[in-house]
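Contributing new records

If you add data, match the layout below exactly. Sequence lines come first and carry their own label; structure lines follow with theirs. Keep one chain per record. Anything else will be rejected by the validation script.
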Amino acid sequence: MKKLLIQLKYLVIVTLVLSVTSLNAQKAEAPNQTYDLGAKINEMTITEGGTVVVATNDGLVGIKPGHDGLLFNFTDYGRVKPEELNFIPKAPYVVVGQTGFGGLQTKSAVIDYMSGKVMFSTEKNGWKAIGMSQVLMPANKLIVSGQRRAKEKYAQAVAIYDLNTGEQVSFYTFKGSRQAMGTPLVLSDGVIIPTTKGLMKVDMTTGQVLWENELKNIGWMVANDTEKDIYAFASTSNKKNTKIYKIGANGASTWADERKVKGSISNFQILPQGIAVVSDVASSGKKGLGKLAAAKPESKITLLSATNGEDLWDKAPKTKGYVQHFYIMDDGILFGIREGGINKVSYDGTTLFKKPLKTGENILTMATTPQGLIYITSEDANIVNLDTGEQVWNKPLKFKRADVVSSDYDKKNDRYLITADEKTYSIDAKSGTSELLNEADFEGKEDPTSVEVRAGGILLASDQNMMMLDWKGEKSWHEYKRAPGKSAFGAILAGVTAVAAATASASASYEANMYERNRIGQYTSRGERLNDLSAGMSAAAGASIAEMLKRFKATSATQNSQFVLTKLEDGVGLVKLNKDTGSTEKEIILKDKKPEYQVDEFGGYLYYKANDKTIYAYNLNN
């Protein structure tokens, strides 16, 4: 079964597709750049900034698109395993961390992969072992806690570094046996550090301890805009529940007792009406009679009083599954369930929809439109009234459960286009009238996996096929490129694209994106969605951030082309196809029965592993 493709907001996934060449194609077998890495290549990652980071037997190598020579060759730690790399989302950093005895990182380095500079390392900065390190964006800072080296008598300490310069901003040494744990909270006038003996706030300029309390086992914290209200979170000893504490600016508890919620917190929002909390309860794993009394695997939605932590709702809204979408509205909270269903609850606990809206499973899209809320699942689609939950379309568009669902907005004809399996549907935005626009007969046992509105029509595409429809759904042209066969199937060079794979910890995502992530967006066309990728980065400063933003704001190489791998007359190669005509604009013959490669489809570069130590780079833009 094909893997389910979910439309991801603020994300560009590097995809690789297959095709065959045309006779008039421009051959370009000679690489634009050749990189001799000097050691065996193990995996390759195309980062958000476009730099290629290659793991070798000797360490990490950086390749900058279009530049000769290596950007950096980091060999301080020798071979780096995949689990030792952390690419920071929407930031130009890769963190290398090697763990020693006791689970502490004995070697850690932060590399700016846009400039090639090592901004921090345990060796250079005097650390023996690190218990916690966190890149803070958009502040562009690194906070580190752990054990110092022998000349400092192995003291426990915490420090903050400026990742623009690599310089240490502040430093504090703990007294006695106190150790840092959890994720610190950086405020405008200091940092709150969870320690083994409680929370402590330190002025990181003077080193003065501003206050201490006895709250232990705190994992992460969130402050409101004024920094006067601080919420701290700790898992219970059995890790099945979460405790929430509220403290004031002086560190004193402002709730008489902590608040305990079932499960682990997956979403948290500070609101004028209270504290909105989503917690996920996992299956207990019990069987037989014990299963009847066990908690159901589902999300719990709670609204707590900011004053005393009490539950403000007499009856929590039922979810009957895990919350997949969670949005803060003017009149209440809108949420969608992964197992199917959408509902809305007011801040006083009243259900605003006349009844929960039934939907198919796996809600891929929830967004606002002039007509109401559009939702698209793996089984159906509709627009609903956001005030009542009633259907705007007379009946939802339904299709058999699809492995791949793609959609786009046709602004010219004011309609939504949805492709599921081999069928493309057209839905009039005003009336909601739907029709089967086209049932594509793709070759090679394929169905369309994407729909895209172009200037001259509607483009359907898959791994091997591209088909252009006119505005009535009639086929204008169809280009099929046969796959090279299993024995010659191109192998993606091991490694994952940071754009798609990098994830932030709960504490980091809440701290940086808490407000933004819970605001529902407006449904826009595919092209407009690509232009929004720089959101969340522009608040950060620095030369490397600015360079990344240029890449995001530039026209994607895939806007007018599709890059395709196939078996050509002279061997396996990559083909560049024009999305508007289907014609082949360029081909690169790799002369390898099973080439290992990656394509930066956003920047327009092919990186091919020519041998165990060499990478060829091809510019696909011209």
